[in-house]
Design brief:
Blueprint (H helix, E strand, L loop, with lengths): L13 H18 L1 H4 L3 H11 L6 H9 L8 H23 L6 E4 L10 E9 L5 E10 L2 E9 L2 E2 H39 L1
Antiparallel strand pairs: 1-2, 2-3, 3-4, 4-5
Helix pairs in contact: 1-3, 3-5, 4-5, 4-6, 5-6
Length: about 200
């Protein structure tokens, strides 16, 4: 019996993942006239299919909710994740709907081979000053996943943690879920009016 060595696919480095995702998304936006025209349904579909599979929503949501996450029931945690994901898709889609002729520059990665958490720093260049856009990633069983995003020096999870904490202190976990659901309904209604 002849035994052949099994070749394992080389795991994609975190900076290579961000570069590939960014280029793929920018290319798809530039190639689709309906996306360029601001069709938010198409932009949201693009974000959901291209970017979201590379995000660790459980960690992102748990970090944004803070210590109250541990007190939430599994059902509440799922609802929080679902509403937060909808909010993030909308937020990211809004930014991407503004893309015209931007390019992305991925900065050299400063990490050791054994690191399981890294920050990939990028700049989005177009008209005007470059925009800082950094990603926190963690290594999981399936590769690297994004769990936080920094736009112009502001980390997304930190910003939401402050907002969520105020909401939880005022109305509890269910109040936060209701608030997120209401915000998403308003956003959906606004998109429906524009379509």
């Amino acid at each position: 019996m002849l035994v052949m060595p099994v070749a394992f696919a080389q795991e994609e480095a975190p900076d290579a993942l961000i570069k590939r995702l960014s280029i793929d998304v920018l290319d798809k936006i530039k190639a689709d006239k309906t996306v360029q025209a601001g069709d938010m349904t198409k932009v949201m579909s693009l974000v959901d299919s291209q970017i979201m599979p590379n995000v660790n929503f459980t960690r992102m949501t748990a970090s944004a909710v803070g210590r109250s996450w541990r007190q939430a029931t599994p059902e509440q945690q799922k609802k929080l994740q679902d509403e937060f994901k909808t909010l993030l898709i909308r937020t990211y889609s809004g930014a991407l709907s503004q893309v015209k002729d931007q390019t992305i520059s991925v900065k050299p990665l400063r990490a050791a081979a054994a690191d399981t958490e890294v920050v990939v720093r990028t700049e989005v260049m177009g008209r005007g000053d470059p925009v800082q856009l950094d990603y926190r990633l963690e290594k999981v069983g399936t590769g690297w996943k994004i769990y936080d995003l920094n736009v112009l020096g502001v980390w997304l999870v930190e910003t939401y943690r402050t907002q969520f904490s105020q909401e939880i202190n005022a109305k509890g976990i269910d109040g936060l879920i209701a608030s997120l659901a209401d915000r998403n309904k308003v956003n959906n209604a606004n998109i429906a009016k524009k379509s």
